[in-house]
Each structure stands twice: as structure tokens, then as C-alpha cells.
## 1
Amino acid sequence: MTDSAPRAPFLLNAFTMNAVNHVSYGLWRHPEDQHHRHTDLDYWQEIGRLLDGSGFDNLFIADALGLLDTYGGNAAASLAHGVQSPLTDPLLIASGIAAVTERLGITVTVSTTYEHPWLLARKFTTLDHATEGRIGWNVVTSQLESAARNLGLGTQLDHDTRYERADEFMEVVYKLWLASWEDDAVLRDKGSPAHPDGLFTDPEKVHPIDHSGRFFTVPGPFISEPSPQRVPVLMQAGGSPRGTAFAARHAEAVFVVGADDAALRRNITRLRDLAEAEGRARNAVQAITSIVVVTAQTDAEAEAKLADYQSHFDFDAAVIHYAASTNIDFSAYGPETPIRYLDTQSSQGLLGMFSREETGRDWTLRDALAPASGFGRSRLFVGSGARVARELDAWAAATGLDGFNVLHVISPGSWADFITHVIPELRALGRIRPDAGATLRERITSTGPLPAPDHPSHRLARAKIKESV
């Protein structure tokens, strides 16, 4: 049974990381891969120009705050295999990408666990101004023990405590973005009959937020004038029960995982049920998942390209990454070891998606991370543009997906192939949105530049404004 919703444009994110390699394990060794240039702004601007106006909505840059040191108890394996290290800050390159693009959204991952809401609110307001309303925030709570140690904690905060902190973090930034400065606070009046001496900002229209909570005390007022979107487009990837509840409350697009179609559809339904329980519309949250696409002019050419890529795939690197993500040292386990769910303080969703309890079958490390026709945990699509487009269209209809994080096997070649071969076919199916809307939110939602009226940011802002009147 599938939803009877009409066909709608996909949300298409080009998905990557500001590291030598994201999740195309071992492909940094491929002679055509350019992602080793991730430290060069020229490289990111080339990607921006490629994606801008292509049919992709957004460049989505993942991030982490520590070396992957779970496998074997140290970072040697991840460093040797080039698994998400070396890694540099994606937030600092966003404005450089924006400078050479006009339509492309830019979504950056930042952790609520290791930032302060006052500081991060200003950073995103600055980027929303610099991009003219094209910035998004992938909200995470972080999962690496190495990050906790290096940022002043002996170990990670408890998994659910991280989300409790994140809920309050969001409350603070909503108040700063939506309740502190009124829309017409900034006048820039250099001298008029009403203000003969000039008036830049009307102080009566700038308000403190007076936030005092369990984790944060932020009196305000905010320091920055409102940006085009005020609130960056909010994306999230929580897969645990607590993470899904957080996503249903706050996110506008959610990265959903599932080991098979049934699990994926079940997780999407659960997300939408929770969003509805929060007082939001069922379609207020767009469900996306990651995919790998290998495409060419013909199916045969795509299959040949896949064989070439698979000769560079590094299964050990996939296990090293999975160990860090789940906080389980898999170095002592063989590739045929069944995956068992354990409560950890890291990504419970990534571990649970392959559990017997979730799927009704045993998954070994090899099953999950190196399927015969795949690259790691993401679904693989191989073939001509027409074949891939038909399969994506059918998969979305069967599962309820609203879009995809399109991973690169090689960069930027995988995205260039997708643009050349797949996007024209998706456009013919009505799955590529018209290039309209001034801001990222206006292009990928129907709410205008601000979050939808049923989004919790407005409820918190209205409550704060009511207090101050």
C-alpha cells in the first residue's frame, strides 16, 4: 500500500563532507577523484558552479568533530585508510561557495552539543545574509567519543541528555531569531521629519529574550538584525526514538534510514506520526535518504563504470567508519559477524537499522557494509539516466520518500554524470522543481521564507513576544 499523494518534485541534495573522503570508502584512490582538493576553496567553488541551477536544490556538507578512533582503540586505522580524516570546518567555506552561485542552497552540519546558541545563532544569521537566504543547518548532537574528550568532556553526554540539551538549544535560537528583533526594527533613516537626527535602529523594537533554563542562560537582546529566512532551513538525521522525536519536532527535512524498503517506510510513517502529534502537518517534514548513483549513456556503460569503482572500494574503511558511528570496536570481529543491537551513547539508529528486531533477519558486517552490488549502507542505483530516474520514482512512491542525499563515488564526476543523465529524465517525470523562489526555504517548501506557521519556532517566539508586551 502506498500513499495516494500526487507526484511532487524531489528534494535533491548533493551530499559530501569537507574531508578527504566521505562514505565512498577507498575511492580517494581513484585517479578521477578530486575530493583530495577539499582544502582548496577553488574546488568548492567549482562544485558550487556545477550544481547551481542544475536541478540540485542544495549542497549538504556533513561534519564531525573528532578523529575516528573506536576501531582498534585508536585513530591509526582511520588515518591510514583516509576515513573522514583529515577534516576541516565546512561552516567557513559556505560564504565562498555562495559568492559564485545564485540559486544553490548550502546546508552545513553543526552540533548543538559543542556550540553555544548565542554564538551559533549569529553565525547562521551572518551566513543567511551572505547567501541571501540560501543557508540550511543540519542539526546534530554528535556521536564521537573523541569529540567529547577534545572539547572538554571526559566522555559523551548521555544520548538522551544530548537531545534534551538540543531541545533547549533550539528554543534559545528560535527566540533570538524570531522574537528579539521586530521586522521593521532597522530603519536606516539618515534624517527625516520623523527622525531629524537620523535613526538607524528603533530601540523600542529590539527585545531581550530573558532565557534561563537547565543548560543555558541567555538574556539577549540578539546582536544581529533579521536575515532573509531568519531561521536557516532545518535538517536532521536522528534515528533513535529520542532522535526521531527531536526531528519530528524541529526539522523540515529528515535523513531517514532503513535496511530494507519495509523498514524505511515504517520509519518514515513513524516520523510523520510524531510530527502530527507535535501539531505539525504530516507533510511538514520531508523524508530523504542517501543514495549512490552510477550512471552513463547506456546501462552497459554504467555497469562497466561500477566495476571500475568497485575495484577501489575499501571494506575495512567501511567497518572503521561504522565502528566510530556506533561506538563499537569491530576490529575483533570477522566480516561474517552478525550485527546485534546494543545501547550505546553514539548512533543508535545506525546500529538499530540492521538489528534482527528491526528487520527480522541477521545482517553480517559484510551484508550491511559491502553488499555485492553496493557501496556501504546506501542504496545503489546503476544504469542509464532513464533507468535510474524510473527506479528512483518508483522507490519514492513505494516508501514515501520525498528526496535524496546523492553521494559522490568520485567527486565531482558522480554529480556531473547525475546532472547529465538523470536530471533530464527526472524533469520529464515532474520530479525536478521549477527554479523559483528567492530563498532556499521558498524553493523546497511552500511556506515562504520563514518556517511553516505550525513549526514550534513560532510558538516559542509568540510566547516570548507576549511576555515582553
## 2
Amino acid sequence: MTSISAAPADSRAAPASASRNLAFDRARTFLTLVVLLHHAVIPYTHFGHTDPKSWIGFDAVVLATDSFFMAMFFFLSGLFVWPSLRHKSSGQFFRDRLLRLGLPFAIAVVTVIPVAYYAIELRQHPTTGFAEFWWKMVTVGPWPSGPLWFVWVLLVFDLTASLLYRISPDLLDPVNRLSLRGFGRPGDFFLFLVAVTAIVYVPSRLWFGVNHWFEWGPFSVQASRVLLYAAYFYIGAGVGAASFERGLLSSDGQLAKSPWGWAIATLIPYCGLWGLIFIKREILGNPDPLPHWYEATYGLLFVIFSAGMMFTILAFFLRFKRGGWSVLDPMQKDAYGIFLVHYAFALWVQYCLYDVDWPAILKVLIGYAVTLAPSWMLTAGLRRIPGATRVL
């Protein structure tokens, strides 16, 4: 794709190209690996301490990953929605989304998820048979969806976007114009992103708390974050609505020229989050509930860090967009499938390592490798099935 050195005045000129964008493909693949890392380290943290071993460094990893990676997934997912709607009928778009998102979700929640959570069931009730466990999960519950909640929520966002596009194709033009200005002034778009996400997230956090989930069967989503994810998705859709290569995400733009600056700036809210955690544990004594001032301050730092991490990662991949081969490239086509199936491998390797007296770091290294390798091989095998590439 070709970029120009200045943003045009007409936001509807030069719509997004249908060809693959190497920078964003690599960013998605990188985020998939971050998801696997997140699930690999949780048992060995203070927050999710389900293994006898732990290491404080993994708490630092989880604090960082949990604060940005799913929001960024929604942003990247939104980028190509408006161009797709421009070239497809509502019916075709609906069918494509059901095939790409609805079908994998429906299959995975009755296969991958029960297999994954059976490892936890055996830890608590070693005599339970899998058939008994599976039947109870899908008929009585609870029926957790694990990381697959992202898939059904994205499907809802996509279908809602289709309805909004039919009402007004120009609905997201203001966001796109701001993106065009972000070609030379990414800080303006950053402040916009922080302001919008703070408005939707901080009140939700105060109202619902951080641990409440909306749940109905396998359909679940964290209550305090659903509007945050919607904001990232639709802001991403606005950025991608038109003039895609001439705005904020241009490889010739100012954002792509300053990855290290964004990385250093993002350390400030991250350190602030750790400061609040120290205050909660050492000064406030872990009260439940926490004071509103604490939750509001934490929520504000959360959205600043989330936006900063996304800008840092995008800046890095945009800068090296033309850098030839990447270690991430061989995995790009399989990344979605890896995301769908990895949770079963992750929980089972943690189950097998539970009684092994090894350091937490070694367990995580083994767990990560034994999760990634078979997930990748299984996905590659499934994609060889005729027609499977339309889904995976």
C-alpha cells in the first residue's frame, strides 16, 4: 500500500485497501501470543494463585496484559468493518460474520471449553467422569466460555455496526477526520481515545465493580468493560472508515516515528497502577469495597495505560511494516485458530505441572511452549479440511 506525506482534506477519499496489511496482521499475531502468555502465568501470580509456586514478576505481566490486550483486539477488529460493509450487502455481511465468528464459538463452547475446564474439575473432584461433567456443564451450569467470550461479543458488535451503517454510512466520519489529523498529531487522537474510554469505563467500574460478569449460559462478558470494548471497536471502525493509509495509522505518520517515546510515556500510568496497588494492600488494608476515589483513580490510569500500550505496539509494527520477514509471519494465518483452541492445552499442562516441584518460571516456560506448539499444529491441521479456511 502507498502512503502520502500529508493528510487529505476529504475523509472519504482513498478508502481502505482490501489487501492485507502486514503491520496489523503482525499486531494481531503478537496479541495472540500475549493471550497465551497471560493464561500461562496467571496460576503463578498473587491474583490467580492456583499453583503452589509463584513469582512477583508474573504479577507485573498480568497487570500489563489484562489492562490492554482485549481492548486492542476490539480496535483492530473494528478497523476493516466499515470498508467491508461498503462492499457487501447486509445479508452477505451477516452470513460471513456468522460463519467466521458464530460457528467457531458454537463448536468451541461444547468441545474446547469443557475439555479445558475438566482439568479444573479433576483437581477438585478426581472421580468425576468427563461425560458427567460435560452434561452438567451444558445443562445445569455454570458454563464458562473462557477467552471465547471475545468471539460472541465481537459478533454482536459487528452485527450492530451493520445496522448502524445502513442507517448512516457517514456516522463515523468525525472519528475518521480526527484520525486524519492524527497523521501529524497522534497525541490529539490519544487524548480523544482516553477521554471517551474514561467516560464509559470509570462509571461502569464504580457501578459494577471489577469482578461482576453478565452471564447467560456460555455467553458472558465483564460488566465494567463491555462499554470500554465497544468504544475501542467503534473508534477502530472510525479510523478504518476511509483514508486508512493517510491518517493516524499511516506508516509515514508521526505515530510510526515514535514507538520508544510512547513506550516511555506509557510507563507513567503503569507505575501509577502499581502505586495504587501498594496503597490498597499496605495502607488501606485491602478493604471491600474500595473507596470510590480509589476505583475512579485506578480506572483513569487503566484507560491511559491501555491507550498508551496500544499506541506503542501499533507504532512499533507500523514502523517496521516494510521490514521484510518477521518471526510472526508464519503464524499469521493460524493465529485465530490458536486463540480458539489454546485454552484446553493451557489448563491441562497447568494441571499436569501442579504437583511438580519446579520454579514458577520453569513451569511457565514449559506451559507456554506446550500450549503454543500443539495449538498451532491442531489449527494447521484443521485448516487443511476443505472449506475450513473460510472459518479459521
